[in-house]
Structure of Cytochrome C:
Amino acid sequence: MMRLKRVLGWCVGIVVVVGAAGLWYSSHPEIEPLNVKNPAKFSEKQIARGKLLADTGDCAVCHTSKDGVTNAGGLAIEIPFGTIYTTNITPDVETGIGDWSFEAFKRAMREGIDRKGNYLYPAFPYTAFTKTTDADLEDLYAYLMSQTAVKSDNPVTDLSFPFNIRRGISAWNLLFLSPGAYQPDTAQSEEWNRGAYLVEGLGHCSACHTPRNLMFAEKTGDDYLGGGVAEGWIAPALNRNTPSPMGWNKDELVEYMRTGFSANHGVAAGPMAPVVKEGLSVQSDADLMAIATYLVSFQDPKGKVADGDRAKAAADINQQAYSRVEPLTTQGARIFSGACMACHNQSGGPVLNGVNPSIALNSNLYESVPDNMIHIVLNGVQSPASDKLGYMPAFRYNMNDQQIVALLSYLREDFAKQPAWPGLAERVKQIRLETEKDN
Ligand code: HEC
Ligand code: HEC
Ligand code: HEC
């Protein structure tokens, strides 16, 4: 399991609102523990439905520590004020949720309050999970309570003052949590609503793909799905501001979500890899199409390139970029040709290793910041969305900062035809340092 460091900045917002917390003091009662001598029994079908919902919500991605038991918790989420540890959501009575009734579970998912009545930090995406229907919550509960109970004494979350005052979250919730199941938009199709339910609810796509305000809550309106930050990576805009030179159509989105790769775009790497691997790739065709239907509705209705023209447009973008690599007149072109082309040519020859993503079509090259490209070149792709995609080697020890700057400047200006990234050298240096201990 990949180790995740979700630096969610909402914590800064808590500082601002913690003062208000006194005013908005609200307390929640403990919910009676379950009678654990008489555990409830659930049908195999219900448990299987619940497992799929748990996958949709990436529960195991966050609730499993590196090399730990699935859902036994303990993953460290580092924020500037300390470390939040995910909890054990297996049915162990002592250290997990074994004595949680359905009511207690539902309150946690809908309102972000644990069985005893404590506020949970919004690193747990309950602002999205709240949209889950009662029926789905029941299935999810059935699955969680049917797992093998694992005793796991996880480290206790300990943030510095005032973030350690959990009650401060009540004021933040008042501003940014709209508790309650998803309400269908009657102006939209059933398929669109199904996609909205999955994306806005358990899928919590906007937790990463939407920028945050000063209080570190997700922005709304035109900023929804307008691109955000996740573990030091950029989660590209999925709305009309998509950086992709082609834009996305439904079929490409479905393919990307199913396999982690779309030839007209690229791969799901970094923090998106586990989202595809554990969450999206196991969904039904109908649900992936519903998500795609919902997502494309946020793009330019005219689309960047019409369906019938997409093959030619992609070939043209590749042609203009790749045909000018030679003669190797710049240092960047020489590095690209020597270090990258063997796996990233678009000449149609045999594929050396997994897939052969086109660099010219990759959204990351068209982003206003170079961070994802730097991550990829420094650290490669070590935890792919699927083994079939292959692994990309890390170049951290093969290239110095100056060479990486020359390579990325070349790709940005010559392949993507975009203005130079400001502060590129500084970012390469920083990201090299930040990712040193994990690589
Ligand atoms: C982005 C990471 C993330 C994801 C995804 C996630 N959780 Fe959590 N969850 C957390 C964190 C962090 C906490 C602890 C919050 C705290 O200590 O205040 C938590 C706490 C909980 C709690 C409270 C448990 C307790 O003992 O207090 C429950 C229940 C829970 N999560 C269920 C789920 C379920 C079910 C899913 C999948 C549908 C899920 N979580 C997905 C991060 C996540
Ligand atoms: C944990 C953070 C996170 C979550 C949650 C998340 N994404 Fe992503 N997503 C990313 C990152 C980071 C990238 C960039 C990956 C890369 O370039 O390899 C990305 C890339 C993508 C892309 C490709 C965009 C492009 O132009 O290349 C699509 C499509 C996408 N995500 C869809 C989704 C959907 C749908 C969901 C919800 C089901 C979702 N994402 C949830 C972080 C996330
Ligand atoms: C040994 C083959 C190999 C070499 C050499 C290689 N790559 Fe890759 N690269 C891959 C594979 C395979 C993937 C897809 C990995 C995955 O997601 O599983 C990939 C993915 C990528 C992506 C897409 C990442 C994303 O998130 O969309 C970029 C950009 C990239 N490589 C750039 C480069 C650059 C620049 C170089 C040269 C410094 C390079 N690669 C060298 C095999 C290679």
User: Anything to note?
Assistant: The chain has three domains: 10-176, 190-296, 322-434.
